[in-house]
Write a structure and sequence with these properties.
The chain has 13 helices and 9 strands. It has 321 residues and is α/β, with parallel strands linked by helices. The longest helix has 16 residues, at 53-68. It is globular and about 60 Å long. The two termini are 31 Å apart.
Length: 321
């Protein structure tokens, strides 16, 4: 998503679902090699899992099918976005199923070193933006144009925003353009961090319950839209390169077709597992269906995957080698 993007949308997901998903607690295994990755001749696969729930949904379904349809042993490793590329290049993980665009890593590993290969579109388009609750947008339609945001700054003030309107972000560790956008568009707003995806969701639900207005950084696909309808605020249109200098950004976030990547050796010698992961493609609706089961209904990723697999055989049957 441009040189600095989505190292963003959603980092610390619900620890409970993460612990279930990693099978080894939520320990950061960035520095650890999985004993199963790239094991010659063994029917094992190691999948990198990011901490936002949409990425967990992809991995849960891929893991379920690899285990139950193809008889593989699947190991999952929780790694942050950029270190995941290093692990993939080194064969410490075999596949990364949802990448939001990391041009520097693509150039280094896909084009130059050729240790990673693009495995095609996930089928889901990712987009980061600023959103207000739809109930507020209906009452004040002009709030959906950034030029009118200052008019509503007073209404969007909170105890944390220091006399300005609040723009709620997730974790301070996400790389976003929001502080630069507020400054460069001369907006009377303060970026306030909720702390994590889970904390942000809790806050949004609380605002919605009280029918309060709010302005938040958020992203699609995300299951929360099913529970709290939100309307995007139009920022100045995105043009190629408008976000190249993080300090000078004054444009919207792009729409990014999310990509899958495989370790190059695994792509060649990974047999049926590599074939399935290359063919794995589904819709935003599919991903949200699984995400909702994990995050909202508190199913384990495996239970959520089984539910989806039982309902959608016509979709996944085509992925099998």
């Amino acid at each position: 998503m441009g040189p600095r993007i989505r190292t963003t949308a959603a980092a610390v997901a619900l620890a409970s679902s993460l612990a279930l998903l990693t099978g080894c607690g939520a320990a950061d295994m960035t520095k650890q090699a999985s004993p199963f990755a790239n094991a010659q001749g063994a029917r094992t696969v190691t999948l990198s899992v990011q901490s936002w729930v949409g990425a967990q949904a992809n991995v849960a379904v891929a893991q379920y099918l690899l285990e139950h349809e193809l008889g593989y042993r699947v190991d999952t490793v929780q790694i942050d976005e950029v270190p995941a590329w290093d692990a993939l290049s080194q064969g410490r993980v075999d596949a990364l199923l949802e990448d939001w665009g990391h041009p520097d890593e693509e150039k280094r590993y896909v084009e130059d070193k050729k240790t990673i290969v693009n495995a095609g579109d996930l089928g889901v388009t990712g987009h980061i933006g600023w959103f207000v609750p739809t109930y507020f947008a209906k009452a004040h339609p002009d709030v959906t144009d950034w030029k009118n945001l200052n008019k509503y700054a007073d209404r969007l003030r909170t105890a944390e925003s220091g006399g300005k309107g609040q723009l709620m972000d997730g974790s301070p560790s996400y790389v976003t353009n929001d502080k630069a956008l507020v400054k460069n568009l001369d907006l009377d707003y303060q970026v306030v961090f909720a702390g994590s995806e889970a904390a942000q969701i809790t806050q949004i639900k609380q605002f919605a319950k009280e029918k309060k207005p709010f302005l938040t950084y958020w992203y699609e696909p995300q299951w929360l839209f099913e529970k709290v309808p939100m309307t995007e605020v139009k920022l100045p249109a995105y043009k190629e390169g408008c976000d190249a200098d993080p300090e000078k950004v004054a444009c919207a976030y792009p729409h990014t077709p999310l990509q899958k990547y495989l370790n190059a050796d695994f792509a060649k010698s990974g047999g049926d597992a590599a074939a399935l992961l290359k063919k794995f493609t589904w819709t935003t609706e599919d991903q949200n269906e699984v995400s909702l089961l994990i995050a909202e209904q508190k199913l384990s990723p495996e239970e959520a995957a089984k539910k989806w697999v039982d309902r959608h055989e016509s979709v996944w049957r085509k992925w099998l080698p």
